[in-house]
Each structure stands twice: as C-alpha cells, then as structure tokens.
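Before relying on records like the one below, remember that each one covers exactly one chain. Contacts with other chains, cofactors or solvent are not represented anywhere in the record.
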Amino acid sequence: MTADYQVLSFQDTASLTEIDVFSSDPLTLDIRGKGFKAVSAVLINGDRSPETIILSPQRLLAEVPRRQKGSQISTVRVLLSRQGMTPQSLITFRSVVPGAKASGFTRLLQSFIRLLFTDPGTDIQHPELGGGLGSLLGTAGDVGTLRAQASLAVKRAEEHLGRLQADSPRLLDAERLQSVKLLSVDYSAATTAVSIKLRITALDGTTFDPVVSV
C-alpha cells in the first residue's frame, strides 16, 4: 500500500443531549448539548439551518430548513468552527491541504473509508476489492434495508483492508486496522443523504467514531 494524498476533511461536532420543538412558526428546534461555542452551522437532515441563535454553551435554537418542513427529523448535527480529529467529528471527502499526505490514524481512516465506498470491479489492479457501499446510495427501499446492506459492506471492507495491510510490513501500528463496528446509519429521503457512524480501532489501540456524510 503506497502513501495517499489526504482527501478527508474533519470538522468537530458538538455533543447533543436533547432536541425539542421550540416554535412551529417558523418551525424551530430547541437543541441542548455541550460545547456550543464557535458554532459554524447546524445541519438538520443534512441541510443547513437558515437561522441559528446561540442562547448558551449548552443551548441553541435552529430553524428547520424549508424543504425539511413536513419531513421526519432524523439527524441533527451542530458543527463547530474548529477542525481536527476529536471524539466527535464529521468526515467529508475533500482535499483541504493540496499535496498533504495521509499518515498515522488518518491514513487508516482514509484507507478504510475509500474501500467501504468502492464498488467491486472498479479497481483495475484489485477488481475483487470493495465494500460496495457507494452503489447502495439512493437505491435502498427503507432504512432497515440500508442498515443491513451497510453492515455487510463494512464487513467486506474490513476483510479486504486486512488482506491488503498484511502485505505492507512498513505500516505503523496506528495505520493498521484492528476492528471496525457499524454504530448507526441515518438516511434522509428528502436529500438522499446518508450518514454512517463507525467505530474504528487501530492496532495501537487508538479508537475513533467517525461520521461519514455522503
């Protein structure tokens, strides 16, 4: 396995403890949690809230986006302006620092997530590899089916990465996969957005629970 350019972007998310409806006109959520400092955005079902009011470091109000009104609220995330790997981070695919190379635990994350979304047959050198999750986006009939398919894709990607890493003796322990667990899958029918929360553990014991949003 050769070194890769980093294409993962990390953004901290605040910890949420309670979500209620504050008002119906406009439809506004009352969100409780921790660390509501330097909030950059509130995502409701993957869409950015048009107006957010910070009442305290533990409470904020966020208006529900117009196209989400009438939809079931399945995901709410409070994004912070800080960027970096924390116990709660949202991961998106984009190159933040052109030319930067992924190393350490970030390299492990990138290797696994790339395999997870790779469809078998699309890698010319290794056509058998890939979790195949990318082909599931927008095709699952319901959340239950999506969860089952995502679980299978995670298991396949875990097995494939283990096989690849066995042929790479120079990898650091922080770059070697020990285990992966699928914690949750959220799907928004209105935006066809999928958010997957994983627990990834490296051979050196480092554990991280990334949320991958696509």
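The two ends are 25 Å apart (CA to CA).
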